[in-house]
Amino acid sequence: MSFELAYWRARAQGRRYATYIARTPVADGSTLGNRVLATYERVLRMTNTPACLLESTTHTGEIGRFSYICLEGEDTFVLREQQDLTTLKELLKENSPESMQEGSPNEKLNIPFTGGGIGFFGHESICEIEPTVLRHTVDPHGIPDGCFVFFRNVIAFDHEEECVSFCANVRTDIPLDEARKQGEIATEKMFEFVFRSKRHKRDPE
């Protein structure tokens, strides 16, 4: 699915974002692990918006296929009462981007996560799901039942295919050409975080 198709499908489904993706192969895939940590350090140092690093491992303790750096966290939603679960469900659907599936007819983009909400459900959240479970009456720290941050952009390091994908979630309430341009600018910025250089322009088909 091209970016244009992802954009129109997202609009039809009432989603706020469509994902523009640019992919870059890495000549020496063995360096990807080092690039992940170096890139994350640069993101934390050079940006002033929420960011996070998501890693995965195999059952044998080896690094998993993907490492994700999520950046430009825009909105934060805190759960404190039962009705917040309904609101969160709507927000997760609305902010789940419609993503490109191919960069070109011969280049499939198999990226499981391209953006959306990341967060946690706390221990006490079970009280909002199962009415028979009573909430603890003492809460000295005021910890919420859950908290989610919605991230605008994602850098996906693929350790299996030895490449990096730059996923820019652009709004669908703007014209297609403007959305595509914003995607190009955002992916270029992410490229510079990883490789510390300009990327030769390489638009998805």
List keywords for this structure.
205 residues, alpha+beta, seven-stranded mixed β-sheet, two-stranded antiparallel sheet, 9 strands, disordered C terminus
Structure classification:
alpha+beta
- Summarize the helix and strand pattern as letters: HEHEEHEEEEHEEH
The end-to-end distance, rounded to whole angstroms, is 10 Å
Q: Tell the overall outline.
A: globular
* Number of helical elements: 5
Uncertain residue segments:
201-205
Radius of gyration: 19 Å
Average pLDDT over all residues: 85
- Main pleated-sheet profile: 7 strands, mixed
Helix percent reads 25-40%
The proportion of strand residues reads 25-35%
**How many β-strand runs?**
9
Entry summary:
By secondary structure, this protein is an alpha+beta fold. The protein contains 5 helices and 9 strands, in the order αβαββαββββαββα.
Polypeptide structure, described:
- It is a single chain.
- The chain is α+β, with helices and mostly antiparallel strands.
- It contains five helices and nine strands.
- Strand 5 and strand 6 form a beta hairpin.
- The longest helix is centred in the last third of the chain and has 20 residues.
- The protein is globular.
- The C terminus is likely disordered.
How is the secondary structure organized here?
Elements: H1 3-12, E1 17-25, H2 32-46, E2 52-54, E3 66-79, H3 83-95, E4 98-99, E5 102-104, E6 107-108, E7 116-121, H4 126-129, E8 146-158, E9 163-171, H5 176-195
Parallel strand pairs: 1-4
Antiparallel strand pairs: 1-9, 2-3, 3-8, 5-6, 7-8, 8-9
